Amino acid sequence: MALPTIVSLSEDALKSVPKSYDQASLALGATHWQTLIRVKIPAAFSGIIAACMLGMGRAIGETMTVLMVTGCAPAMPHSFLDSIRTFASTIAIELGEVPYDSTHYYALFSVGLVLFIITFIINMASDIILHKYQKITK
Amino acid sequence: MNTRQLKQIFGFNLLRICAGIIFLSIILILYDIASKGLNIISWEFIFSMPKKGMTEGGIFPAIVGTVMVTSITAIVSIPLGMGCAIYLNEYAKNGKLTRLIRLSIRNLSGVPSIVYGLFGVVLFVQLMNFGTSILSAGLTLGLMTLPWTVTASEEALKNVPKSYREGSLALGATKWQAIRTNVLPYAVGGMLTGTILGLARAAGETAPILFTGVAFYIPFIPKSVSSQFMALPYHLYVMSTQHPAIEQVKPIAYGTALVLIIVVFAMNLSAIILRYKLRKLKEE
To answer: Cβ contacts (< 8 Å) between B121 and chain A: which residues?
Structure first.
């Protein structure tokens, strides 16, 4: 589910590398592959990293898909094959059942706050990376 | 053939495999849902009420619920989003405040959908006293689609050449007149395209409506915007994980998934067609 974000944003980053870069590289006798690895990807690197971070941000906040396939056991996982629950699915499962104004109710909101802060940091970081990158290419 | 060329062939084929895997996974998902959902879909399935605790019958209330919620989402997010985009692109000066607004819009688009759900519960259901209803759910989804609407509308406005505005201003029109007569008509198509894409995503979201209005089982059409409703994505979730007779309702779950995918695809397709037609119009 993170794939579409990562693919389309990385593509944008690669596309915004000026054409003169790869023309110069090709003119020096490099193959297309060498141009891609040594010139285009380094030039677009921060954009690609930002795309990956945004994709991860989406994956962290994803609720329903995770809820349906992880099994939602509220226990410490011991391996990658254990059933777990995430921030988002905890809220989704429990909010419907807790009484209004109870400690549990507010606990779920603080789970939401932590989730929000995590995604906020990821988004801010990718935003700053992208912004810097745009300045450099200009 | 030297090593450089060998490396190139190897590398490009590796990338080709990556792209192929992504493409294959889409085909697999579609095939799985279509092959299992097609034999249950019929006019009766679409236009009849669920019966016997949802083990029989159709999904009509879920379709109606989704349509109603999405229209409220559209009513909320189109004017607000377009207004915000017009302000940001046409009126706002490039200052600290504008940057802050832009930053928060970009951050809003990354906020998890369940957090919107929590926010909707507090603001619309409790504070504004709308209760769990179509209205609350629509407003929550409207907030969620706002960032997409704003970003898409801004892009559309940016694509209108500066000379259009300047020509109108030079003839003595006020700024608003220039925007209304010379900018908006050219940008409105692009704005709508982005908005439809946002709405298509909203139509498929489950988490924000989970606590703001969706209901497990209501075998009739919602009467007003303040009643609870059934929605396709939530219906699918219930049918595939929560229903007591899970094996019995599996075909219905697949049918619901197929209908949902068709609805979302149709919306995306209409956005693409709209964009294509507009591009043609511009070229002429």
So the answer is: 95
Residues of chain A neighbouring B110 (CB-CB closer than 8 A): 54, 57-58, 61, 119-120, 122-123
Q: Where are the domains of chain B?
A: 43-283
Measured at the alpha carbon of residue A74, what is the angle toward residues A68 and A77, in degrees to the nearest 5?
90
pLDDT digits over B222-248, tens only? Answer: 777 788 888 888 888 888 887 777 778
CATH 1.10.3720.10 fits B43-283, yes or no: yes
Name the domain count of chain A. 1
By Cβ distance, the residue of A54, A91, A122 closest to B114 is: A91
* Domain contains A70: no
Q: At residue A12, does pLDDT exceed 60?
A: yes
Task: Calculate ∠ Cα B230-A90-B126, nearest 5°.
Answer: 55
Averaged pLDDT, groups of 10, chain B, 284 residues long: 84 92 92 87 80 75 89 92 90 84 83 88 86 89 90 86 88 88 85 87 87 80 81 86 79 88 90 83 68
Do B241 and A68 count as a contact with CB atoms less than 8 A apart? yes
Chain A environment of B4 (Cβ under 8 Å): 31, 33-34
Domain that holds residue A57: 3-61+119-137
Using only C-alpha atoms, chain B has a radius of gyration, in whole angstroms, of: 23
Q: Is the ipTM of this complex over 0.85?
A: no
The C-alpha of A5 sits at a distance from chain B's nearest C-alpha, in angstroms, of 11
Q: Is residue A82 part of a domain?
A: no
Residue A132 lies in a domain: yes
d(CA A48, CA A9): 7
